[in-house]
Amino acid sequence: MNDISKKIEAILYSSREPLKASEISEYLGISTAEFSRAIKEISRNYEDINSSLKVGQFGNSYKIKLSENMVPVVEPFIEKEFSEKQLAMLSYIFKMNGEAISGDLRENFGYDYKEDLEKLKKGGMVSSRKYRNTHKYKVTTEFHRKFNINKRTLRAEEQ
Question: pTM for this one?
Fold first, then answer.
């Protein structure tokens, strides 16, 4: 594998989120054609050695990811970013037109909802503001980015 391919592989492996081809190309000072050749080389190398890793493509973004058949093997060792309760809370807030008040969350998730809500706030998934004598919680742009939710697409699907 050539030096450019190794650098791209290292960047994609170390990145938490998929990266755009143009960003990596610009960072390394290479053309998009060189980037495409390197991605093909990396993918081919993974296939040739029957690796548990592969290059994942998400639109025009890329990430080194685990092959689907290896997911059950590693699942017990993967640190979950969100607990089931936190995901349920995010889903609930999203379904309520993106906003929910404290009382609704307490009623649906119990009196200990605040600890999970604080973790979601720290993670940038929800924001809060004072609303009358309570608080209103809203999903953020980061929530939409993280879960790949496009507001315009959703509106079009609803119609």
Answer: 0.57
